[in-house]
Design a protein that fits this description.
The chain is α+β, with helices and mostly antiparallel strands and 153 residues long. The protein has four helices and five strands; from the N terminus they run βααβββαβα. The termini are far apart.
């Protein structure tokens, strides 16, 4: 009997999760951009987020309740909006293990993050994806994101 993967718990990551985060982010870079990240540099980068939290950002994890397996992660960074006198949250380094994709878990995780943002007055969630990562773009659109009028340069 396999674990129920229709629901995930979403929680902030802790320093105990650094090695899992490094592994998942390396895998994400390999899959999405065909890039091999240096493990030491990445580990130091992930540690820096925890050392300077929330200034650099906050990692969040998606966890299967039945097994406590970490199956997804993302990093939230902030952007200040003087126009709106509040923050935007940027989603970065989002990854979900392949065997758990296509089950609506990305949408579920993003809704949880959105709810956390509303509690602290965040204007909206934003993200960017590599323009050739069609699979991610399709998943983000399915979760309610859309192309906007801004161009990253």
């Amino acid at each position: 009997m396999s674990a129920d993967t229709s629901q995930i718990l979403v929680r902030p990551a802790t320093t105990e999760d650094i090695f899992v985060l490094v592994d998942m982010i390396r895998t994400m870079a390999r899959e999405s951009e065909d890039r091999e990240l240096d493990p030491s540099t990445l580990q130091n980068g992930v540690k820096a987020v925890f050392e300077q939290q929330p200034t650099l950002g906050t990692y969040w994890l998606g966890i299967l309740p039945a097994t406590q397996e970490i199956i997804a992660n993302l990093l939230i960074t902030t952007e200040w909006s003087d126009w709106n006198n509040t923050f935007y949250w940027w989603i970065q380094s989002m990854y979900i293990k392949p065997e758990h994709r296509g089950k609506g878990l990305i949408t579920q995780m993003l809704r949880s993050i959105e709810a956390e943002g509303r509690k602290v007055g965040v204007a909206e969630l934003r993200l960017y994806a590599h323009k050739l990562n069609d699979r991610a773009i399709k998943a983000y659109k399915k979760a309610g994101f859309f192309d906007n009028r801004y161009m990253m340069m």
